[in-house]
Specification:
The protein is an all-alpha fold. The protein has one domain. Helix content is about 65%, strand content about 0%. The chain has 7 helices and no strands. Helix 3 runs antiparallel to helix 4 and helix 4 packs antiparallel against helix 5. It starts with a helix and ends with a helix.
């Protein structure tokens, strides 16, 4: 893949080691796969980010970072990949997770309609408890479906990156071979 293009956006190891806020986490951030752009590390980072993106609430990037550190995959890729969940994609993802969960639990989709989300545009301090109550009312069907959808997306993301990376390398080698033949 065009690693040279992406390398200019990634920090080097010395910058990370010397950052004053990250000194506490220095032992966790030393593994080379957390920062290197190779096929397995990037594919794992995409998988971690896709799984962590389905965690409700504002902790998706933190969850992606934790999963990247645990599985020793590319940390920035895992954190950025969580951005696929946003206000525009949450609705379809919730429906897909509930539908997938209903396949496991046998619950009908008619139960999927939780009580109205009654935030009322009030205080921000009322938003998170109301959101938590809304998700809680979706029940175990949504929870099971969310985990299943996260695992499915992670597996598809991992395989997709591996395949795309491999196809890119094969195309690059073919171009290089044609250039070498054209010179002779």
């Amino acid at each position: 893949m065009p690693r040279k293009h992406f390398r200019k956006f990634l920090p080097d190891h010395a910058t990370i080691r010397e950052h004053r806020h990250l000194k506490l986490f220095q032992p966790l951030l030393r593994h080379p796969n957390l920062w290197h752009l190779n096929r397995h590390s990037v594919a794992g980072g995409v998988a971690a980010g896709l799984f962590a993106g389905l965690i409700p609430g504002p902790v998706q990037m933190l969850s992606g970072a934790i999963l990247a550190i645990i599985f020793r995959v590319n940390l920035p890729v895992a954190m950025v990949t969580t951005w696929y969940t946003n206000p525009f994609t949450w609705g379809p993802l919730i429906v897909a997770a509930y539908w997938l969960g209903s396949l496991f639990t046998g619950e009908t989709i008619a139960r999927a309609i939780p009580p109205d989300f009654d935030w009322g545009g009030g205080q921000w301090s009322n938003y998170l408890p109301e959101l938590w109550l809304w998700f809680k009312n979706l029940g175990e069907t949504y929870l099971i479906g969310s985990v299943a959808l996260g695992l499915l997306l992670a597996a598809l993301g991992y395989v997709g990156v591996q395949l795309a990376w491999r196809l890119y390398i094969l195309a690059y080698l073919r171009r290089r071979k044609r250039r070498a033949q054209a010179r002779t």
